[in-house]
Design a protein that fits this description.
Chain lengths: 190, 435
């Protein structure tokens, strides 16, 4: 949703430094997560956000890729839709909400799938932000189950946990397989 | 639209709240999460393995000390990224398991409390620690934790294959007394059994190689780290040891291309003679030795590294309970920590059933420990086992660097001299960057 709002702004609205800001967003695509993890960790510590749901959710809420992706999608929608809605007296927000957003559902579902997969599989940020076991994500919890240095005991139990951990993502795939295949094919061909 | 604002508000509110209020001791450890298996068991004597024993010990402490509830945080092995993140977020746990080689990294930055007052309150005399354990927690004359064990490499041996190879005498394996004899035994073993004499975890485990190098350098009384900023590897001793490792691989007397789990499986399946790995595997191998039909059934023994050069020596590490520094720790919380120290010291025997060596002389020399399988043979390690000097920081990273270069040398990708020079340069570069 936030990526859509930003994408709509970059694609449709005129405001000062729009191009500069968009270039900055694109630059974010080139910066690896590891480069920002220390300042982000410090920021979240100052805001007392570690070991909280917000601490896990906020970093993935908006990504440069999501903004770029939605901007490109909004740009591909003919401006005549906006103009027709304006003639009917719709506000900018109403145009976004009622007219354009429903047209971006394929892109949003693609982005949602990518975001879900990335969040589900994320290990590094939850490892250092959700440091209390009651806030562990599945990836960190599974890693914490490793019983000895040699990784040779309790393997059956560990594998059973891994199987259960994979069930939700399997269900997501079954439900959204059309979108996932389209998203993968789209990123490969375009 | 309203739902979006409600969602955002809920997220922000969720961020303001903490997951729980603290009371008692907030303990952080590795060794895995096995509450599903051992639940609320307090019968420490009936459980096995590191995870089971530590879980039931903490359950027992909670049962015996209802006024000091211990909440456990089990971290992904070995837990240092999480601990560092917690320290950076000014939210460290009250007490943490730590390998002795890592203590210097945290102690040098003033992040750990010296524990002499806690030991005093718990009635623990540091003179009761084994020499190896005392060395492991002492940095700059201060004690930075309660040592809990000593662990290091051992020769785990398949007696059935040794018998087949003609390397048994009086029911005991004949171990080499020099590097040349080692090679001769290995050739004989391979010729008679068709299997490798030595099982090695050379893939993804650089520490394996480095710890072997440390051990044999210590046997030469070599000074590996002359000061906090330098390592000394371009020496005749290091060259001799590296050439020995290389010879093993050139003659294919050991396994190649195996990681740790593969090497363990190879040993348990009876596919090699000796597997040099840690004390922590004794329990699992002993279980194999007790199980009829398994390749190691009645055919397992374990001994310290044989003396190939110089004197008896072994590079060792240890598990230690350390106390991160906190400004707002109350006298009551200190007393609770002292009580926990006392409990852990009192139950050190229960822990060493895992295979590790005790941290206390009284247990090491006591009848219960020595009645455990193989313990009389390995007990001397607690005396002559030697960690790196306490002033050496980044020991884990250094193990990785030296191990990489050693792997390149024993695989023939680099000359021995080139690998040692590169290892020395890389380690010195790293130590030069340490604050």
């Amino acid at each position: 949703m936030l990526c859509s709002l930003a994408g709509y702004g970059f694609a449709r609205l005129e405001f000062p430094f729009r191009r500069t800001l968009f270039v900055l967003v694109l630059a974010g695509l080139a910066i690896p997560g590891e480069a920002v993890v220390l300042p982000r960790h410090q920021l979240f510590a100052d805001l007392h956000l570690h070991n909280s749901y917000a601490g896990l959710i906020l970093p993935g809420l908006v990504t440069p890729f999501g903004v770029f992706f939605m901007t490109q999608y909004f740009r591909a929608i003919p401006k005549e839709y906006d103009e027709a809605a304006m003639l009917d007296g719709a506000s900018r927000l109403k145009i976004f909400w009622k007219v354009l957003l429903p047209l971006t559902i394929p892109a949003q579902s693609t982005l949602a799938v990518f975001t879900f997969l990335a969040s589900w599989n994320d290990y590094w940020w939850p490892l250092i932000s959700a440091t209390r076991s009651d806030m562990y994500t599945l990836t960190v919890g599974l890693a914490a189950s490793q019983m000895n240095y040699a990784q040779t005991s309790g393997l059956g139990f560990l594998m059973a946990q891994a199987v259960f951990a994979s069930i939700p993502i399997f269900i997501v795939y079954l439900i959204f397989q059309k979108q996932i295949v389209r998203a993968m094919a789209g990123t490969a061909v375009r | 639209m309203r739902s979006i604002w409600i969602l955002l508000a809920a997220l922000l509110l969720a961020g303001c709240g903490r997951s729980e209020e603290r009371s008692g001791i907030y303990l952080q450890r590795f060794f895995g999460e096995c509450g599903a298996v051992f639940g609320r068991s307090t019968d420490v004597g009936k459980v096995e393995g590191e995870c089971g024993i530590i879980t039931s010990m903490i359950n027992k402490f909670n049962a015996e000390n209802p006024s000091i509830p211990v909440s456990q945080n089990v971290v992904a092995w070995p837990g240092y990224p999480q601990l560092t993140a917690q320290v950076a977020a000014r939210d460290p746990p009250d007490i943490v398991t730590m390998h002795s080689g890592v203590i210097s990294d945290y102690a040098a930055k003033g992040l750990l409390e010296p524990v002499e007052p806690l030991l005093r309150e718990a009635g623990i005399d540091p003179a009761s620690f084994t020499p190896a354990s005392l060395r492991a927690v002492t940095i700059g004359g201060r004690l930075y934790g309660l040592p809990w064990d000593t662990h290091g490499g051992l020769f785990h041996i398949n007696l059935a294959l040794f018998e087949q190879a003609g390397l048994m005498r009086g029911g005991k394996p004949i171990l080499p007394t020099s590097a040349d004899e080692f090679i001769a035994h290995a050739r004989q073993f391979k010729a008679r059994t068709g299997k490798p004499y030595l099982i090695q975890s050379l893939v993804g485990d650089p520490a394996y190689q480095t710890r072997n190098l440390y051990t044999y350098l210590m046997a030469h009384d070599a000074v590996i780290f002359p000061d906090a900023d330098h390592v000394r590897l371009r020496t005749p001793e290091a060259r001799k040891i590296m050439n020995f490792f290389r010879r093993i691989n050139v003659e294919k007397l050991g396994t190649l291309n195996q990681d740790t789990p593969a090497a363990i499986a190879t040993f348990m399946n009876g596919e090699g003679g000796i597997y040099p790995t840690g004390t922590w595997m004794i329990g699992q191998f002993e279980q194999e030795a007790k199980t009829a039909g398994r390749p190691l059934h009645n055919a397992y023994a374990v001994y310290p590294y044989p003396r190939l050069w110089g004197r008896d020596a072994l590079f060792v590490s240890g598990h230690v309970w350390v106390v991160p520094k906190k400004r707002d720790r109350t006298p009551e919380q200190r007393s609770a920590l002292a009580r926990f120290f006392g409990f852990m010291a009192k139950h050190n025997y229960d822990w060493v059933r895992t295979g590790h060596l005790p941290a206390f002389k009284a247990i090491l020399e006591g009848p219960r420990f020595n009645a455990l399988p193989h313990r009389p043979e390995i007990a001397p390690l607690a005396k002559y086992g030697q960690p790196l000097p306490g002033y050496v920081q980044r020991q884990s990273a250094i193990e990785g660097l030296i191990g990489e270069e050693m792997a390149a040398a024993v695989n023939g990708q680099k000359s021995v001299d080139g690998a040692l020079a590169d290892a020395e340069r890389r380690v010195n570069d790293l130590l030069g960057q340490v604050d």
